[in-house]
Amino acid sequence: MRQLIFAFCIGLLPFAANAVEPDEMLTNPVLEQRAREISKDLRCVVCQNQDIDSSNAGVARDLRLLVRERLVAGDTDTQVIEYIRARYGDYVLLKPPLEPATYALWFAPIAFILIGIFVGGGVLMSRRKPEKIEDLSSEDENTVSEILRQNETRDAL
User: Fold this and answer.
1) Own/partner pairs for 36-40, CB < 8 Å, 24+ apart?
2) Are 34 and 75 in contact (CB under 8 A)?
3) pLDDT tens digits for 134-149?
4) Burial 13-52 (b: 16+ CB within 10 A, else e)
5) CA-CA distances (angstroms) from residue 131 to 16, 126, 155?
6) Verdict on whether the full-model pTM lies above 0.70
7) Could you tell me which residue, 35 or 25, shows the higher pLDDT?
């Protein structure tokens, strides 16, 4: 049993590690740390909501190399992010700015939740209304009385 648990833990190690390859790392630890911080704020454009620091996609690798290249060239963190944003758009940012162009990214989830609440509430409220039962007409009452009399006579036999 211990061997199975050990094998399971060893199997999970690759998932816990970052995707940054050793050949991508900078020799300057300060620049490398800045690159890691910037990479955690940038979205991999082919992955689903994953930062480029933990993505194994080729595009993510290219973006990580581009971040490091810009840092070595002397850009500030803001300049690096703006450079990549200019090339890939606001989608590349994990936290896009609140601007008219990104209102859909910020407010669409809230709008969908509100629409769901109103539609769900409307459905539930419509089911709670009791159906109005109309009174029987005199013809229907006579028919029911006749059926009941026939059943009584049949039961009596």
Assistant:
1) 37/77, 38/67, 38/71, 38/77, 38/80, 38/81, 39/63, 39/64, 39/67, 40/94
2) no
3) 788 889 889 989 998 8
4) eeeeeebbeeeeebeeeeebebbbebbebbbbbeeeebbb
5) 58, 10, 34
6) no
7) 35
Q: What is the mean pLDDT of residues 28-33?
A: 88
Contact criterion met (CB below 8 Å) for 36 and 28:
no
Q: Residue 79 to residues 5, 71, 76, 83, 86: CA-CA distances in angstroms?
A: 46, 9, 5, 6, 10
With beta carbons less than 8 A apart as the criterion, state whether 58 and 45 touch: no
d(CA 70, CA 64): 10
Place of tokens 């009791």: 130
**Quick one: pLDDT band at residue 99, thresholds 50, 70, 90?**
confident
Q: What type of residue sits at position 151?
A: N
| 107-116 average pLDDT score | 93
